[in-house]
Amino acid sequence: MSFVHRYAQDTSRPTLRSAGGDLARRALAPAVGLWAVIVGLGTLIRGPLDDLPTEDTLNAELAADRTPTMDQVTALWSNVGATLFIIVTCLLVIALVWWRTKEWWLAVVPGIAVSVQAAVFVTAAAVVGRERPSVEKLDEAPPTSSFPSGHVGASTAFYLTLALLSRRIANPTLRWLATAVCLLVPVLVAYARLYRGMHHLTDVLVGVLNGVVCAGLAWHYLRRREPRTSRGRARAAAAR
Question: Which of 6, 29, 154, 224 could form a disulfide with 10 if both were Cys (CB 3.0 to 4.6 A apart)?
Answer without folding.
Answer: 224
